[in-house]
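[Meeting: bench + compute handoff]

Bench side (C.D.) handed over the final construct sequence. Compute side (W.E.) agreed to return the predicted structure before the next meeting so the bench team could plan truncations. Sequence as handed over:
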Amino acid sequence: MKKLEDLLLLGNPKLYQVSEPVVQTELPLVPSWVADLHNVMEEIRAKYHFGRAIAAPQLGIMKRVIYMNIDRPLVFINPRFTYLSEELFDVWDDCMCFPNLLVKVKRHKELTISYQDMDWQTREWTVKGDLSELLQHEYDHLEGILCTMRAIDGRSFKWRPTP
């Protein structure tokens, strides 16, 4: 079982790599990856008081998997955006890989995501606002992109206030 100390931190070269798609024969591996993602996210929540989703590459699992748990667990396998709104909004983004830093970025206000679920069924979901921002952030991890690379300008960084 992976733990908080297994989380890759800003500067780790793996965070800048593009993740590989999950193939159907790997589906039996996904539950253990999800258990690791869940465990580390719970440790982040306990220590830093944030965390709604995590991408597999953040734990060095270089596969296209996102785990979200807000009101219930949701797993996105091989996600892709089928729609991104033209309308953008500014948001202070946070990341488990650098938990004390906030980065101001522009994100699409609405999106539609297509993905496989844990039964390898294709699903589609349209979201707005904070969920749109969250999925864009996690999807960026699959592409080897960190929010620091999307900063609006050189003044788009600040320390997270202590709780």
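W.E. noted at the follow-up: The first strand starts at residue 53 and ends at 55. C.D. will use this when planning the next construct.
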